[in-house]
Amino acid sequence: MTLRTSCFDRGLFLKTVKRFWPLWVGYLLIWIMDLPVSMFERYSYREMVPLATLQRYVLGSLSLDCVMITFIAAPLSAMAVFSHLYNDRSCGTYASLPLKRESVFLSVMLAGLVPLVLTHIVTFAVNCGVSVSLGHAMMGTNLTWLLGSVLELVAFYGFAVLCAQLTGHLLIAPAVYAVLSFTATVVQLIVGGLMELFLYGYSGLSGNFATLLTPVACLMNHVGYEQASFVTTAEGYTQATSYALDGWGYIIAYAIAGLGFLFLSLVLYRKRRMETAGDVVAFRPLRPVFKYALAGGCALVLGMILAGLFYNDSRDTVLGLPKVLGIGLSGLAGGFIGYFGAEMLNRKTFRVFAAKQGWIGFGCFGAVLALALCILHFDLFGFETRLPQKDRIEAVTFSFSGDRVTFEADSAEEALRLHKAIIDTRDAKRASGYEGTRYITVNYLLKNGSTVYRKYEVLVNADTRDMLRSAEDILNSPAARRGRGFEQQDLTPYWFQYCTVDAGGFQLSLSQAEAYEFYTQYILPDLRDGKMDRVWLLEDSVYLEETYKVSINMRIVEPVDAADRRDNVHRETLYLTPTTESTRVNDWLRARNVPLTLAEQDEYAMKYPVASDGPTMEYATGSVTVVEVPAVPAA
Are 197 and 327 in contact (CB under 8 A)? Predict the structure, then answer.
């Protein structure tokens, strides 16, 4: 007779399921109320509900409701079925069962997963009945929802089971699950903020790598519905007649990762020492990882909160100290809390400060923190001064307080010269006196398709005035003006979404045909001749003497039908101001009785706002900053 060892125990499975039945019932009620009942109450009063409307409602729940519900339910289920790991007596009872570790793991793991999956199947069946009552069977859409929701559940449940194996404390398991689920995004935000403080021109960490490591955010952003079929009406409009799920790749990838986490959890469960019940970290080799990870997390989160409370923007100081020292001390204080807090949790005692080894480890952590701050403060990697090579540039776009100028490849040298002049103003950022602020962004489009983006805050003072004056000359040069406006060979009136003219209390809205004629026959020729859209960076009486108090706003978008999902659709939004030299535009405006009056000082201040570090007056409801605008010669 051959003896067979089973990897699944039916009795343990059923007992675990029955033990936590309130959890499964609650999960079922949530889903029944969230999808079929909600859909019925929303559309039952209508005589006829379009199929596309119901499909959009069902598939849309996979990107929001399903993500949030399964994200919360997964750790609750995992903690429930693996709760024996967090109690000495229960742990000993399960260890004494005449079952292999694999059998115990698979039995309790499935006891937490199967009821959740059955809940989705019941919800699917009820939703099919509701869909039929609303006039559409929608079997395919409901099956899509069932498969997508189960895969999302597997993704979160697998990660929750892994987190349950890492600790021996019931309250630590959900904390580990929540923290690790958002660690990548939080670290990206905080590190990006630090780099913005130290590196002149830096503007946030780019890329979506952190989003990919945050399944909740990624599924919400990339899972949804797309048009599967559409019809064209007699008026030429297209409307969807059915929808399909978009984002299958992300759902499947996370589900595969969840299965991988379940396999890793099985490996850890087999090697886990049952006497670690009650320990914060169940595996001894992971305790140093937990200690330094908690120290680093507290240094970033608590340290940056402390630094933010005592950061003085006008003096660029933290805690009254130079920025790098103040942030270093704040991070060290947060790291101290995290490091020795982890020591207390690992050793289960408050007496951790007497151990010499603990202080040596904290000293090493402090050295790494100091090294990281020195790299940022002294820009040891040369980020601030690094520029693309001229022969790799396809186009460069500068944006100065709302005015945008584009240099083509043949003018790349002039654009690089302007960018270098902007970089040279980084030391003026720490100057105590200044008249205002100019916000400048530089966006390079390289020939390989990649982009390089920089964002600068230039203070207007004696150190930067010459640079801004020369920047005006470059931005208003013929090479720069060639890139203004919007030129397209097949431009038609249907491209113009709107066009408005605003002159104080006088407003004028143009039809598509009128906007097309105004732009092609009047605006574009004046732009080509360099008679409009001059960029002003400094307060100067010339601006007040040459610019009219008229704003022309228009939106130009290539017309496409609903089936066209191209990413390279041509579009442009133009904000134009006529000048005394824009004779064609001025004649058009006068012919329509648009009042033409020269700009005044407040018009300049509105377009180029002035920031000030002036005195602050405290009131009961908050604080008000008194801003002194420098005098501008009258027109």
Answer: yes
Query: DSSP characters for 237-273?
Result: -EEEEEEEEE-HHHHHHHHHHHHHHHHHHHHHHHH--
Q: How many whole angstroms separate alpha carbon 183 and alpha carbon 537?
A: 41
Instruction: With residue 571 as reference, give the H or E element that holds it.
Output: strand 571-576
Centroid of chain to Cα 535: 31
Residue 628: predicted pLDDT = 34
Q: What is the CA radius of gyration of the chain?
A: 32
Indicate the pTM of the whole model.
Answer: 0.79
Both tokens assigned to 527: 């732009």
Strand order in the sheet with 571-576: 506-509, 496-503, 551-557, 571-576
Contacts of 304 (CB under 8 A, 6+ apart): 190, 193, 194, 327, 330, 331, 334
* CA atoms lying within 13 Å on the CB side of residue 594: 24
Please give the C-alpha separations between residue 2 and each of 5, 6, 10, 92, 97, in angstroms, as whole numbers. Answer: 10, 13, 21, 30, 22
Quick one: which of 229, 249, 247, 226 has its CA closest to 239?
Answer: 229
CA proximity to 445, closest of 406, 471, 473, 491? 406
Distance CA 302, CA 308 (A): 10
Specify whether the CB–CB gap between 427 and 505 falls below 8 A.
Answer: no
Do 456 and 440 contact (CB within 8 A), yes or no?
A: yes
- Rounded Cα gap, residues 298 and 335, in angstroms: 5
pLDDT of residue 527: 82
Bridge partners of 441, per DSSP, are 399, 455
Residue with token string 């090294």: 371
Residue 410, judged by CB atoms within 10 A of its CB (0-12, 13-18, 19+), counts as exposed
Backbone angles phi, psi at 371, to 5 degrees: -65, -45
DSSP class of residue 598 equals: B
Would you state the structure tokens that stand for residue 442, as one six-digit string? 């530089």
- Confirm if 430 and 317 have CB atoms less than 8 A apart: no
Parts of the chain with a pLDDT under 70: 1-5, 205-207, 231-238, 401-403, 428-434, 479-489, 533, 539-541, 543-544, 560-568, 600-635
Q: Are 332 and 366 in contact (CB under 8 A)?
A: yes
CA distance 103 to 283: 21
Backbone angles phi, psi at 220, to 5 degrees: -65, -35
Contact 68, 154 (CB under 8 A): no
Instruction: Annotate 128-182 with DSSP letters as a single string.
Output: HHHHHHTT---HHHHHHHHHHHHHHHHHHHHHHHHHHHH-S-TTHHHHHHHHHHH
244 forms bridges with which residues in the sheet? 226
Tell me the C-alpha distance between 473 and 461, whole Å: 18
**DSSP letter at 452?**
E
Q: Which whole-number Å values give the CA distances from 25 to 22, 28, 67, in the listed order?
A: 5, 5, 19
Whole-number Å distance between alpha carbons of 600 and 549: 8
